[in-house]
């Protein structure tokens, strides 16, 4: 059985074995960052993760997803310290979906700021 290669690479044909090997390489490229994320999630939950380390991990995940047509971009919302995941179309660099929407996190941050003005935190 033969499988056609991507159009950008010309009219070459690829064997099923070559396709499987390519997919396995892509999956291995994702496994390392995902394992590292899983190990570090415990540290984040315990408050042991520093900001620079977390940014480094997110950069690795972003590079790992460069292998696919759709890219996931990770960002930390500065005011709420929440993680934002953006699904981006690689062809036109357009955001397909944002989880959670940054606008909602902005509203939440303003509400928390307003509550801080209403109530004195010194007790």
Question: What is the spatial order of strands in the main beta sheet?
Answer: 3-4-5
Order of helices and strands: EEHHEEEH
Enumerate the spans where pLDDT stays under 50 for 5 or more consecutive residues: none
Shape: elongated
Computed over alpha carbons, the radius of gyration is 20 Å
Structural class: alpha+beta
Largest pleated sheet: 3 strands, antiparallel
Fraction of residues in β-strands:
15-25%
Helix content: 40-55%
Q: What is the overall pLDDT average?
A: 74
C-alpha end-to-end distance: 73 Å
Q: Give the helix tally.
A: 3
Got a strand count? 5
Describe, in plain words, how this protein is organized in 3D:
Helix content is 50%, strand content 23%. The relative contact order is 0.08. The chain is elongated and about 70 Å long. The protein contains 3 helices and 5 strands. The protein has 123 residues and is an alpha+beta fold. A 3-stranded antiparallel sheet has the order 3-4-5. It has a two-stranded antiparallel sheet with strand order 1-2.
Q: Which key phrases capture this entry?
A:
single chain, 123 residues, three-stranded antiparallel beta sheet, 3 helices, 5 strands
Topology:
Layout: E1 2-4, E2 13-15, H1 16-45, H2 51-64, E3 70-77, E4 82-89, E5 94-99, H3 102-118
In short:
This protein is α+β, with helices and mostly antiparallel strands and 123 residues long. It has helices at residues 16-45, 51-64, 102-118, and strands at residues 2-4, 13-15, 70-77, 82-89, 94-99.
């Amino acid at each position: 059985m033969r499988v056609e290669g991507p159009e950008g690479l010309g009219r070459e044909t690829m064997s099923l074995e070559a396709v499987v090997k390519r997919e396995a390489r892509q999956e291995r490229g994702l496994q390392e960052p995902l394992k590292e994320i899983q190990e570090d999630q415990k540290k984040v939950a315990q408050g042991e993760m520093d900001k620079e380390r977390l940014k480094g991990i997110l950069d690795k995940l972003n590079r790992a997803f460069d292998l696919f047509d759709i890219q996931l971009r990770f960002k930390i919302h500065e005011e709420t310290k929440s993680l934002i995941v953006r699904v981006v179309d690689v062809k036109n660099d357009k955001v397909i979906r944002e989880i959670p929407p940054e606008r909602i996190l902005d509203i939440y941050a303003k509400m928390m700021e307003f509550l801080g003005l209403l109530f004195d935190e010194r007790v």
